[in-house]
Amino acid sequence: MLNRKLHSCKICGYYDEDFLPWGLDGEFPLYEICPCCEAESGYEDFTLESIIHNRNKWIESPKFKSDKKYREQLVNYLEYLKQIK
Fold first, then answer.
1. Contact 6, 22 (CB under 8 A)
2. What pLDDT, in 10s, does the model give residues 1-38?
3. Collapsing DSSP states into helix, strand and coil, what is residue 38?
4. Which residues of 52-71 are buried (b: 16+ CB within 10 A; e: fewer)?
5. CA–CA separation, 20 and 6 (whole Å)
6. CA 41, 34, 71, 6: dihedral to nearest 10 degrees?
7. Under a CB-based contact definition with an 8 Å cutoff, are residues 84 and 5 in contact?
8. Does the predicted model carry a pTM greater than 0.85?
9. What pLDDT shows up at residue 84?
Protein backbone atom coordinates (compact mmCIF):
# COMPACT_ATOMS: atom_id res chain seq x y z
CA MET A 1 0.00 0.00 0.00
CA LEU A 2 1.32 3.43 -0.96
CA ASN A 3 1.87 6.10 1.63
CA ARG A 4 -0.35 8.87 0.29
CA LYS A 5 1.55 11.48 2.27
CA LEU A 6 4.76 10.68 0.35
CA HIS A 7 2.97 11.07 -2.99
CA SER A 8 1.13 14.33 -2.25
CA CYS A 9 1.90 18.00 -2.57
CA LYS A 10 1.89 19.69 0.85
CA ILE A 11 0.50 22.87 -0.67
CA CYS A 12 -2.47 21.80 -2.80
CA GLY A 13 -2.93 18.11 -1.96
CA TYR A 14 -2.23 16.89 -5.50
CA TYR A 15 -1.74 13.12 -5.41
CA ASP A 16 -0.06 10.85 -7.92
CA GLU A 17 1.67 7.50 -7.35
CA ASP A 18 4.60 8.67 -9.51
CA PHE A 19 5.00 11.98 -7.67
CA LEU A 20 7.50 11.87 -4.77
CA PRO A 21 8.25 15.48 -3.79
CA TRP A 22 10.15 14.46 -0.63
CA GLY A 23 11.58 11.14 -1.82
CA LEU A 24 10.84 7.61 -0.66
CA ASP A 25 11.72 8.34 2.95
CA GLY A 26 9.87 11.67 3.17
CA GLU A 27 12.97 13.29 4.66
CA PHE A 28 14.89 14.80 1.75
CA PRO A 29 13.18 17.00 -0.86
CA LEU A 30 13.68 16.23 -4.52
CA TYR A 31 12.79 19.81 -5.47
CA GLU A 32 9.97 18.53 -7.67
CA ILE A 33 7.53 21.02 -9.17
CA CYS A 34 3.92 20.12 -8.45
CA PRO A 35 2.05 19.70 -11.74
CA CYS A 36 -1.06 21.18 -10.13
CA CYS A 37 -0.05 24.28 -8.12
CA GLU A 38 3.55 24.54 -9.38
CA ALA A 39 5.00 24.68 -5.84
CA GLU A 40 8.57 23.43 -5.50
CA SER A 41 9.11 20.78 -2.84
CA GLY A 42 11.87 21.56 -0.41
CA TYR A 43 11.48 25.26 -1.03
CA GLU A 44 7.83 26.30 -0.88
CA ASP A 45 6.87 23.56 1.58
CA PHE A 46 9.95 23.48 3.80
CA THR A 47 8.38 24.88 6.97
CA LEU A 48 4.86 25.01 8.33
CA GLU A 49 4.90 28.77 7.80
CA SER A 50 5.88 28.37 4.14
CA ILE A 51 3.19 25.73 3.63
CA ILE A 52 0.53 28.02 5.11
CA HIS A 53 1.76 31.03 3.13
CA ASN A 54 1.91 29.17 -0.18
CA ARG A 55 -1.36 27.32 0.42
CA ASN A 56 -3.07 30.67 0.98
CA LYS A 57 -1.55 31.95 -2.28
CA TRP A 58 -2.83 28.79 -4.02
CA ILE A 59 -6.35 29.25 -2.59
CA GLU A 60 -6.40 32.83 -3.90
CA SER A 61 -5.13 31.86 -7.34
CA PRO A 62 -7.38 31.99 -10.42
CA LYS A 63 -6.63 28.32 -11.17
CA PHE A 64 -7.84 27.21 -7.72
CA LYS A 65 -10.96 29.31 -8.02
CA SER A 66 -11.66 28.06 -11.55
CA ASP A 67 -12.63 24.50 -10.69
CA LYS A 68 -14.10 22.90 -7.58
CA LYS A 69 -11.95 19.78 -8.13
CA TYR A 70 -9.01 21.72 -6.67
CA ARG A 71 -11.02 22.59 -3.58
CA GLU A 72 -12.09 18.95 -3.20
CA GLN A 73 -8.50 17.79 -3.70
CA LEU A 74 -7.26 20.06 -0.90
CA VAL A 75 -10.12 19.14 1.45
CA ASN A 76 -9.48 15.42 0.86
CA TYR A 77 -5.78 15.86 1.58
CA LEU A 78 -6.42 17.81 4.79
CA GLU A 79 -8.93 15.18 5.94
CA TYR A 80 -6.38 12.46 5.19
CA LEU A 81 -3.75 14.26 7.30
CA LYS A 82 -6.20 14.49 10.22
CA GLN A 83 -6.77 10.72 10.07
CA ILE A 84 -3.09 9.77 10.19
CA LYS A 85 -2.18 11.95 13.19
1. yes
2. 468 889 999 999 999 999 999 999 999 999 999 999 99
3. coil
4. eebbeebeeeeebeeeeebe
5. 6
6. -60
7. yes
8. yes
9. 84
